Amino acid sequence: MKKVKAIYPGTFDPLTNGHLDLIERGSRIVDELVVAILRNSGKGAPLFTVEERMEMIAAAIAEAGFENVTVTTFDGLMVNFARQQGAKAVLRGIRAITDYEYEFPMAMMNRKLDPELETLFMMPTEQYTYVSSRLIKEVFQLGGDVTDLVPPSVMELMRARMPIKS
Fold first, then answer.
1. pTM reported for the whole predicted model
2. Is 27 a catalytic residue?
3. Over the stretch 87-117, which tens digit does the pLDDT of each residue have?
4. Domains along the chain?
């Protein structure tokens, strides 16, 4: 029987409960799930270093007991990283049609670069359909309560790192 390994790539700055939802559900579908943090994302200055994001994801994975999930980092083309890992699938979250419009051309380009690599689109649980790392940071910085949208350890790190504007 063939084992399926998938990559869940992203910046995870910070890790949200929406990410954890996809990790949990994705880990039930594939034999092995690799959460892969893109080191050079081009999304501007990150709040957390790559090392801090690795630690927060590793802690959340351990706390949740996901035995078939690991975390690592990568640079460059995700397709090349997937090949190096022996992955056959890429897990991507779709919250709204705008996510699909962004993800679809990437999935098609990945297919062009590696026809053997499949993209698995998953929608988050309803309570996380609006949650993004960018929105979490903005709301928190403006004094909004996001405690039920990120793991407790991430909340602690955000409190220590981000000044709240009043």
1. 0.92
2. no
3. 999 999 999 888 889 999 999 999 999 999 9
4. 5-161 (3.40.50.620)
